[in-house]
Amino acid sequence: MVLFTDGGSTKCDWVLLDTTGNLVLKTQTLGLNPTVLSSEEIKHRIEANAELKTVFNTVETLDFYGAGCGIITPRNKLRNELDDLFPKATVTVQEDLAAAVYAVTTAPGIVCILGTGSNSCYFDGEHIHAPIPALGYSIMDEASGNYFGKELLRDYFYKRMPAHVATAFEANFNLNPDDIKMNVYKGANPNAYLASFARFIFSKEITEPYLLKLVEKGIRLFVNCRVQTFSEATNVPIHFIGSIAHFSTPIITTILNEKGLQLGTIIQRPMDGLTAYYQQKIKTG
Fold it and tell me: Are 4 and 21 in contact (CB under 8 A)?
């Protein structure tokens, strides 16, 4: 049986297929980003899922695709935990960009992730090229959930947020400064915590002018830093994956059109495409 994941910092989706490609199990754990979680926390989050525990000793192949897995040290930390938990499985751990590519295209294109964090790569039809390292929520992650969470918090506390928006923001979140600082500097998953504020923007169609301007600023920054840095950008479609991309479709479309770039596919949830990829892979051997 083949088990594979689409792992972000906030949540991780798991799918198990049998030897004919039929769905055996579909489940979810908390996020498993090894750059921000300890080995103990990774193990705890996986073991907390009762459905996964039933297949620890039956999975033969485990392909883990996840945020934070592009760096050797955290990738090895995660793989060691998976090796222990799934002792009969051949385990591979790859960056979430690979899952994004498999979910959206088999042809050359630029593939972008807008989730808790953000990233991009160029896929030449065979190989993935990601020359710019993903340095995480403190340095990069333009137009990601944690980016917009930080923007909202800054605007709220600097009094730049319109009064009616600030009132709604207060009603939805605990904005006690001490609690915010504890979660950011001492919490187990600070990037996911910051990204939790972004649901204020991305839970429905964006119509509030202040929020539209905020999202446009972030998307423009992402396109400048993470799309136009590829020399191939003007020759191939630009694909986007994630809820932020889904809710920002009109803004993404406008910005790419302005820049003469071709919009490809926007997928809110990549696991359906990734499952189809594995089912086809199983059928063709």
Answer: no
